[in-house]
Description:
It is a single chain. Strands 5-4-3-6 form a four-stranded parallel beta sheet. A two-stranded antiparallel sheet has the order 1-2. The chain has helices at 2-20, 23-35, 37-44, 50-55, 65-77, 115-121, 124-127, 133-139, 143-148, 152-158, 160-184, 204-212, 224-227, 267-279, 288-293, and strands spanning 81-85, 95-99, 194-198, 217-222, 236-240, 252-254. The model is unreliable at 259-300 (pLDDT under 50). With 300 residues, it is an alpha/beta fold. It is built from 15 helices and six strands. Helices cover 49% and strands 10% of the residues.
Amino acid sequence: MEAKEAEAELQGQADIWKYMLGFADSMAVKCAVELRIADIINMNGGPMTLSQIIAGIPDAHSPDISYLTRIMRLLVRRKIFTTQSHHHPSEGGDTLYGLTHSSRWLLHDSKMTLAPMLLMEDHPLLMAPWHCFSQCVKEGGIAFKKAHGREVWDFGSVNPEFNKLFNDGMACTANIVVNTIVSEYKDGFGSVGSLVDVGGGTGSVLAEIVKSYPHIKGINFDLPHVVATAPIYDGITHIGGDMFEAVPNADAVFMKVAKKGLNSSGRKYWKKEAFLATISSKFQLYHPLLRHTQSDMVMM
């Protein structure tokens, strides 16, 4: 029993070390995205040596290849990149680094990418609320507001850099969802003449739907500071406003549901559910596929 107890205690210590340093994985992946390592390898058309990769990094005026070596070693261990060698290491063969299914989701120039979301989630502005959890337990409230003095939507309205970061992150995940919807739910849009995307961000999701079904009149509806940065899309009108006050009329509503999981009162979440039940009597797009692709996002 003493041996088993000692082994369990040692395993407990190892687990704490793992959680203590768990952030290192996220930071290493973020580093790879910022340096566009996956893009460099992809543009090369095949695996590359570290010297070749570092030569392709933009604005790397005095690069440290030993630093990159340590980062890539971790990312290979996490199966973000692969390694191979043409020669046996004892013969001095250079290691070649290649892409995996995971690193292909880090490509900036791919339509199906998670790079903007990763940069958003690991940005210091969105990491700061995580340090306010104990304060929220003691006092209640929203972690983001405790970290920055205002809620995320208000913060974005006065901070253009964060507004773009947040919109880009939301758009990339929404594009993944809409790709599935457009390709699988082919008969769902035929009878819809007009469609309003509530909380549609900069309109990229609605643009894909209207592109596939050009008979639809698209209305992209979001907060004024969000639609102010939206590009022009054929067949789409951008309208700014507050969904809790009123939304534009349309034949159908398209919406991703966001749950504010740490809001102690839950008021906005339940109000949004009631809002959906009230205005969605003509909602022709509700389908099991949409239930599987809805995003339950906890906004700290």
